[in-house]
Amino acid sequence: MTDFPWLLAMIAVPAVGAAVVAALPRGREETAKQAALGVSLVVLLLAVLATAAFDVGGERFQLTTSVPWIPDFGVDFALGVDGIALVMLLLIGVLVPVVVLASWRDEPVGRRSMRTFFAWLLLLESFMVGVFAATDVFLFYVFFEAMLVPMYFLIGSFGGPRRQYAAVKFFLYSLVGGLVMLAAVIGLYVVSANELGEGTFAFDTLRQVEIDPDVQRLLFLGFFVAFAIKAPLVPFHTWLPDSGAEAPIGGAVLLVGVLDKVGTFGFIRYCLPLFPDASRDLAPYVLVLAVAGVLYAALLAMGQSDMKRLVAYTSVAHFGFIALGIFAFTTEATTGAVLYMVNHGLSTGLLFLVVGMLIARGGSRQVGDYGGVARQAPLLAGVFLVAGLASLALPGTNSFVSEFLVLIGSFPTRPVFTVLATVGIVLAALYVLLVYQRTMHGPPRGVLLEPAPEASAPGTGSPAPVGGGGATAATATLDAPAAAPARLRVHDLTPRELAVAAPMVALVIALGVYPQPLIDLVEPAVAATMSDVGADPAGVTPEAPGGTD
Amino acid sequence: METAPADGLIAASWLLIALPLAGAAVLLLGGRRTDRWGHLLGTGTVVAAFVLGLLCTLQLDGRRLDVALFTFMSTGSLDVRAGLLFDPLSALFVLLITGVGSLIHVYSIGYMEHDPRRRRFFAYLNLFVAAMLLLVLGDNFVALYVGWEGVGLASYLLIAFWHERPSAATAAKKAFIMNRVGDVGLALAIFLMFAQLGTVSYDGVFGSIGLLAGGTVTAIGLLLLLGACGKSGQFPLQAWLPDAMEGPTPVSALIHAATMVTAGVYLIARCAPIYDATPTARTVVLAVGAVTLMIGAIAGCAQDDIKKVLAYSTVSQIGYMFLAVGLGPIGYVAGLAHLLTHGFFKAGLFLGAGSVMHAMGDQVDMRRFGGLAPHMKVTFVTFGLGYLALIGFPFLSGFYTKDAIIEAAFDRGDGWGYLLGGLAILAAGLTAFYMTRLMLMTFFGRPRWEPGVHPHESPAVMTAPMVLLAVGSVAAGFLLVVAFPLEEWLAPVFGEPEAAEHVVAPIVVSVLVTLVMLAGVVTAWLFVGRREVPVTPPVRVSPVTRAARRALYADAVNESLFMRPGQWLTRALVFVDNRGVDGAVNGLAATLGGSSSRLGRTQTGFVRSYALSMLGGAVVVAGALLAVTTG
């Protein structure tokens, strides 16, 4: 089992699938969807099998495959995963089939066809796997840049009204970051050539190269800027609300759920181990950005009237938490940050999906166009609430575990930053409950409202009784024009939508109640990273003498 | 006291939580299929939990037993295990929660009978019971926190149960947010314990609390207090609790009177080892209790909404409990005894109020009641007994447990003791005033009903729980203080009771309190009983009344200090982010590109430019690599 090239297969299967789907003749849209779903399920299966083949206590990088690619420059097509990369592959495996299913009924704009959409989606999956599975820095860079192409087309061809603007903005930001990183990648090669006599891009070799602190700082910044744009930290974040809002829902889920995680993954995989001195020196500055993001983006999320922008801003706040966890340099906090990356993919993914279901019913992204949906569509409202509660990290949901670990792990080394970030949990409750109340609670109103019937039929004039103890007086005044009773015409979740939401809700709760298997999977890799950066991999030492029980 | 592994039935005490949780899951996932029998299942799980809890308590025998379940999260040096602690203190709460909970579930069968979403109501109630049991049974601070926020969720769902009403939806949100403010304190306390002691288990923290510097212990105590204030509606986080009355009345009885809002008292009593080590934090607890006790009592005097009167009464009575546990070892038992008796009589009062509302077409304005006593005799008698218990009528529940708190306050022996004792006696007078006012406006006098209202007694499924709670209201005080002293039951937790040396003789306190109480009753009769009650509230009233009507301007302060500046800040930041941060970047791009239309033009031929830039990039890479290897 272990000899099977799992990672190569996970890259190749969706890539081939993409080609097949793209080559289907016009009019075979249904086949394209089914093929895309099939391929993505195969990748999920591969991810699960790869996890089974992974030895938790074993080597740092496993399931490795390496073939020389550009031997003159020491570039290998080298793949391998540690626990951190592995859980990201699992996340990709779960999200892509869900996204395919969620996009099943999407109508392409103009002359575009859904065949193309699913082909780009599968190609994106292939590249996303590649970026997490690469153990060669140059290969990582190639996947990092290549990932932009399918996402650019997913946004630019299949997005909302301002998709062109959003796609270009996404592309320019990413390209700038990528170019800066490219410079740093080359710099890294130069340094390795000077130190080792022969240049290399192999991560495990580079990790052991002693780099001059000043050079480290420059190279760190090169990588950091690219990653800080990708997992947007304030003030590099302004592309995300546009992209998140204009992207088709499926694209938005993968953009925020997976693509952006490449940034935080990059912090852990590349910034910390390769440039430990620079990481330690510059950590306070990163933490300022992280905590500023937690508070600033949460306040901005509260002020959004566009639901998709709102979700995008909540993500910026969440990325602040992740960055806090990474740059606190404790095993507890970094484990929390890695879990956060997975959990945020599930919870925010779910939030985007359910917002998409609502938009599919009302045709508007504006919060103010909805109201009172819970009455007519309790399942939709219930899923919305679960996603919202996961977003505000309520205990019992997966996000609580990761947010709690990040905060409790950061507090011992960075108390001030942690206290500030903890205030963010109040803001999170505010932005979630505000949008929930506005769209789901209250009397029915907005775009889902039935147009007023011509004549108010007798007998339907009084509003439906609210309940045993409800204040009838209040209800009567609410439905002031009692002649035309307000009625929503919104149907609850369809079986397909249920199939999209159910696995996500199940994972959100399962990983909230029993997260330890996930922790066990990532902790060795986190501990190794902590050693690289000079922190105690065994975790926080209590301050009071002899304080452990 | 040593913690031993649980044996016998207590080893299965996780079922206490699992039963109602499973009930909630079945009812929520089962959907409409469970509509017909959902309320029965929901009630059954809680009754079963009560029976199990009772059997466990009988087996307990003063021990402190731990039930290890599974590893929740363990990474680095943090090791959080899911486990339960069954000791005399948690057993008390288990019985209160499942006992009162069972009665209220039964009552709700009748109260919610005509609500199309009754099944969902029982699902949420079950969820609440499960979370509340986790809160009191957890053997570490993280389990406590999980239950703590879990009951917050249940409270949110139930306050917003009739979410078509914007006032209900807003009240639910307000409750959750203000609780979250408290939760920040609780979370930070846990972080601080981990950073200092490397553990979050009760045994670990309490066992090594002596290693900490005094300032750190005080900080932990104050942070925990912030959490307690949020959950228990104590100053300065009290404003959400009266609004929470938007929820169905059984919810007000169970969550916002008898159980959840007393979680803050539980937290402080559970953390007695911490508060014993920090007199400073204890003094703050005292002060919070005293201030809230007065705020609640004053506001209660001027409300016309029957549920709001009871809500401010709850705020005030929990103030008594905070005051008691703030006194330290001499007050823990007194505070918990009052918590238990309050659980009986306040739940009973709320159920009675629900019965009245049921009869009056969901009217809550007491100015629209009057003369109801002959029309609903069971409600009148049970409510009346709860009323007498609350105001401290001799030999009923409140008489025993409230007096014990006032005695303990005097027992401090210093000037503060006299001040606090005096305030507590004054508040007892106010309590008598507002409750007598409520009784007179509701059950006596001339009917002031809305046209078309025909009051009737509620069905037996509702009155039976009211009768049982009334029996508890009458007897609980005597049972807990005299017959089977709570002190002895809790001795394994708080130590053997000492023969207290009273500063003021208990009989003096009792007489004094009774006299003040009677003064309150008479005053209420003078103001309300002997005059006609106007149907609309008088406009020309004293500034004191006006302030009391608005609960001493708590909402106004919150709005002008937090809400409005917050909204302003949010709007300003949205503007800055759109124009400033984004504008700067766009502007930079435009400047570099020569003109802003350049960006627009690149879009049209974008694929071509993209290919070009990729080529450019490749050239750069190749050139750089060449330069490096040859250079």
TrEMBL record, chain A:
Organism per entry: Geodermatophilus pulveris
Family designation: Belongs to the complex I subunit 4 family.
Membrane topology: Multi-pass membrane protein
Leader peptide range in chain numbering: none
An example Gene Ontology biological process: ATP synthesis coupled electron transport
GO MF terms held by the record: NADH dehydrogenase (ubiquinone) activity; NADH dehydrogenase activity; ubiquinone binding
Transmembrane regions: 6-24, 36-57, 77-104, 116-134, 140-158, 170-191, 218-240, 252-270, 282-303, 310-331, 337-359, 379-396, 416-436
Domain (NADH:quinone oxidoreductase/Mrp antiporter transmembrane): residue spans on this chain: 134-427
Record region (Disordered): 447-471
Alphabetical keyword list: Membrane, Transmembrane, Transmembrane helix
Localization per Swiss-Prot or TrEMBL: Endomembrane system; Membrane
Entry-linked PANTHER family: NADH-UBIQUINONE OXIDOREDUCTASE CHAIN 4 (PTHR43507)
NCBIfam families, per the entry: NDH_I_M, PRK05846.1-4
Protein name as it appears in the record: NADH dehydrogenase subunit M
UniProtKB/TrEMBL annotation, chain B:
Sections of the chain in a coiled coil: none
Record-annotated NADH:quinone oxidoreductase/Mrp antiporter transmembrane domain positions: 139-423
GO molecular function per UniProt: NADH dehydrogenase (ubiquinone) activity; NADH dehydrogenase activity
Record-annotated NADH-Ubiquinone oxidoreductase (complex I) chain 5 N-terminal domain positions: 72-122
Organism: Geodermatophilus pulveris
Transmembrane segments: 40-60, 92-109, 121-138, 184-202, 208-230, 251-269, 281-302, 309-330, 378-396, 416-440, 461-484, 504-528, 607-628
Recorded superkingdom: Bacteria
Subcellular location: Endomembrane system; Membrane
Signal sequence range: none
Protein name, entry field: NADH dehydrogenase subunit L
Cellular compartments per GO CC: endomembrane system; membrane
Membrane topology classification: Multi-pass membrane protein
One GO process term, biological-process aspect: electron transport coupled proton transport
InterPro entries xrefs: NADHpl_OxRdtase_5_subgr, ND/Mrp_TM, NU5C-like, Proton_antipo_N
Pfam families: Proton_antipo_M (PF00361), Proton_antipo_N (PF00662)
Keywords, ordered alphabetically: Membrane, Transmembrane, Transmembrane helix
